[in-house]
Amino acid sequence: MTMTRDSALNVANVLTEALPFIRRFAGKTIVIKYGGNAMVDEALKHGFARDVVLMKLVGLNPIVVHGGGPQIGKLLADLKIESNFVDGMRVTDTDTMNVVQMVLGGQVNQEIVSLINKSGGSAVGLTGKDANLIHAQKMLLERTGPEMKSPEIIDIGHVGEVVEINRAVLDILTSGDIIPVIAPIGFGADGETYNINADLVAGKVAAELKAEKLILLTDVPGLQDGNGELISSLTASQVNELIQDGTITGGMLPKIDCALSAVEAGVNSAQIIDGRVAHAVLLELLTNQGVGTMISRTQDHPTELEEK
Description:
By secondary structure, the chain is α/β, with parallel strands linked by helices.
């Protein structure tokens, strides 16, 4: 299709607007947790792959950590294996862990790698077991209550938390112009395999690499206040206040905790953005239209949206 003068001018304007952001982020590591509807909708999947390739081509170092809860749930249902959750965590017995490895390490991971490669990039799929990338340990949930004399410890099976990230593996890949695509499966000191929350893995990877940004794709516009209005930016201390007063609750808590831990560990900023919006990652990184909620360490450190 022939491009009109007006459409060509619009493209030129977009590229001009993106230039200072490309310059700012050149050579910087951007860790993206990829999940939610962005992994299900065909147009969004292809768009995300192209966006990641573009990031790499203009000099950024994207690292993708993906989830896959809906895909795991579907296969478990097909196999007539019951899904159970405790405090939002999937109870993972041996049969469920086998399905998790099959879906995350195989089906989902390789689909993302394939889409990125078809879009002109060079992606490599990894689980945390590859090259000892993610050292993990068993996660035990603790419940307390006024009627309890002591906390209740709940074992939810092969569910883990990150102990250590082997950054040397990621340094080798990114320095060789490879885009790592990581499935959140870890290994323990006992050789056990663990299913790990993808948000937690993304946060730990970002912290270990002292990434410029951690971007968490979600199915909501971002963090909202008590009136349903989007909160565009927050400091770490403001986040803690919102947790204390009950503004941040439910399913948003793990993402906020992940973002908060990352910035407190040295990541410049963390963004929670709506993955249902086409090209949401590029809108956040390379335009004046910041989207979602950004968390930074202090207000003294200029936020992305203030700079925009």
